[in-house]
Here is the input.
Amino acid sequence: MTQPSSSTSHKPQATSHLPQTMAEKILSQRGHRRVYAGELAVVEVDQVMVVDSIAQSFIERMQRDLDAVPKYPERVSIVIDHVAPASTVMVAQAQKEAREYAAATGVRLFDVGRGICHQVLMEEGLARPGWIVLGSDSHSTTYGAVAAFGTGMGATDIALAAASGKTWLRVPESVKVTFTGELSVGVSAKDAALEMISVLGADGATYMSIEMHAGDRFTRGQRMTLANLCVEAGAKVGLVVPGGEILTDYGYDVPDWVYPDEGARYVRQIELDLSALRPRMSAPSEVDNVHDVFELRGIKVDQVFIGTCTNGRLDDLHEAAAVLKGHRVDPSTRLLVIPASSQVMEAAMADGTLLTLIQAGAVLGTPGCGPCMGRHQGVLAPGEVCVSTSNRNFIGRMGDKDAKVYLASPAVAAATAVMGRVALPEDLTVRS
Here is the structure.
């Protein structure tokens, strides 16, 4: 697809008071200097998040390279979620070192079973409107659901931020995505997110901010799904503009300054009509290879995975349970369900959702990332096909390089598990 040329970069004078995008607003506020796209900004960091798979590298850089401890321990969290529980002795040793480091420095530690980093930080109030949250995981864009500038960085940059309390960023240009209409029955925020990635393309927003205007549409969880997938278009950050009482209902204080200005400059603007959207599915092996599920119906599936930071929340489990209730998983297909956090698991247990899922034949896993990145708890064998509610379907992502991964909503995933092949929920009605 055609990309904006470098000549579209917006670099006004430092004294300019031109309208600002949401990303420009947040970086200006946290850097105490008005900035615009293309400029460099040194900003205060409100939270640094380290996952277990990079914790050893983070600790090594802090201790050996920087000879430093976190400047603000209360602003640093270590989450053991990517391979939890440990799958090998080597992994167990790395996790032991992370626990010891947390105990010695006073940083927060969320241990095995607490859940996926992004879900946990949201639940703990460690991502808030106008904050800057850096994570050692690419899907840290998820924090944009609550108007926080969330972005992923490597071990070195994360360590420098923890040691100094600051980081530097090039202020990203912004793409404006406006959602209109309302979702039809059976269509979810995952479908909207996949459609957005399809329109933008896998590199259509490289190092940009995707600023999503949805009014009062979408719950916090649905906004997390939208922001989570922004990185799949190459975005540096995905920001959902607060609308209605969505965030205040969760106890967030949304400052007036966080909203984008009328007349702010965007390198591209797209509009997506939710009322025209049908269930979508991303086919191997690129996230932007998006199709109407109807086009892929009938493909034989060996494993279905419902969970991850994209779709492992309570609403997602409710969506799957509503489809599965009264049905059984096809004997030739495995259904893995892994809640995004212990809080999600407890709530799903209390309201009977887990019982519905297990009675349908689902296998329940420890809250965490599970097989999402192909290291444990359900990796795929050569030639196997998986329908997953996760965010990536790259070659080798969930196991063998010859396995194939399709991405879909929890409802489509659940219907597929019952039919043993790619299916829509209405297919179950026809069969019964």
About this structure: The chain has 14 helices and 18 strands. The first helix runs from residue 22 to 31. Residues 90 and 333 are 32 Å apart (CA to CA).
